[in-house]
Design a protein that fits this description.
4 helices; 43% helix
């Protein structure tokens, strides 16, 4: 998994659009999350779907994603995380992860936003921002 500080995005238009999409000013302590499977990195076929994963493997993957985000949060005290599903099938998987883990982590999730409805916002317990004024 890769956690990129959002404040490292140098494109003001992109940041403004992201802020508009989520409805609040993006705090400095925010991160974009990206991950992929090892076999996709090795093949160079990034974000390719796997037809090989069974339910048990998907559950283990979900648990690992939760633990890694929880660990990062414990180190960085992030206020907000952003993620993008690369397909509607992956978005359904993210929705299940949110249902399973958001309350356990005391995170509030905003699902299926953005132009294609594939973006996610995760407000952590450290989020202290206010809604963006229009």
């Amino acid at each position: 998994m890769v956690f990129t500080p959002v404040n490292e995005i140098n494109d003001e238009e992109t940041l403004a659009q992201k802020s508009e999409d989520v409805g609040f000013a993006i705090p400095d302590n925010s991160y974009d999350i990206k991950f992929d499977r090892k076999d996709n990195f090795e093949s160079g076929d990034f974000y390719a779907a796997s037809s090989k994963m069974n339910l048990s493997q998907l559950n283990r993957l979900g648990s690992a994603i939760k633990k890694i985000i929880e660990f990062h949060y414990s180190l960085k005290n992030a206020e907000v995380y952003f993620a993008t599903a690369h397909s509607f099938k992956l978005a359904r998987y993210y929705d299940r992860l949110i249902d399973a883990y958001a309350a356990q982590l005391n995170f509030e999730c905003i699902s299926r936003i953005g132009e294609e409805g594939l973006d996610y916002v995760i407000k952590t317990g450290k989020y202290k921002g206010q809604r963006k004024e229009n």
